[in-house]
Each structure stands twice: as structure tokens, then as C-alpha cells.
Amino acid sequence: QVQVVESGGGLVQAGGSLRLSCVASGSIFSISAMTWYRQAPGNERELVAAVITGGSTNYGDSVKGRFTISRDNAKNTVYLQMNSLKPEDTGVYYCNVVVRRGLSLRTYDYWGQGTQVTVSS
After folding, report:
1. How far is residue 12's CA from residue 116's CA, in Å, rounded to a whole number?
2. What pLDDT digit, counting tens, does each position of 70-88 carry?
3. Nearest alpha-carbon partner for 93 in 6, 4, 18
């Protein structure tokens, strides 16, 4: 099995910064993609940022220019640096990891429990 654990959430004032971390561990042969999603109360879960094998990144429109995703392959860890935070960034941030568990090309995806980010105005 694979475990995914997020950390780094908290309460911050508008304009401030936070850095989230997500660590994947367990039966991992390789990681294909690591993605941050968020969900605010009453809203659907939305993509925040993703990084895939090779280092290509993708961002949601609302966070472009403010958030940066990075990955440490040796530690199976992905980070989300969030700057210039706004109240609308408030929500639970989830990490999703797509992995291969062996030589097979089959992939599996796993979710963390989420970490709360609250931005006050």
C-alpha cells in the first residue's frame, strides 16, 4: 500500500505565505504525477497545481503567478509554495499521487487526508 501525508496548512492573513508538503511512502516503484487539489465548503474539488515525471508543471488559473509546485524525487515529496494568499484560497488542500508499484505499467492513485488552509481578510 501507499500512504500520502500532507502538512503545512494553517491560518494566515491575506497577502501572506504558506508552504505545503506532501510525502508519499510505501510500495512505490516510481511516481508518475503529484497533484494538489483544494476544496472549499460548498464547492467542488479543483486542481491547484500538478507536476509530472520530467518536471512539467500545470497550474489552475486562479493560482498562476502566486503558487509554485516543486518535487523532490529522492524524498517522494511534493511542495506547494503559496504566496500572496487571498481569502478565496481558503479550503482543504489534498495531495494526489499517481504511482507504479512495480515493473507493470499499471498505475494507482492515492489521496491524502488533506490539510486545512484558512486565509483571513
Report:
1. 11
2. 999 999 999 999 999 999 9
3. 6
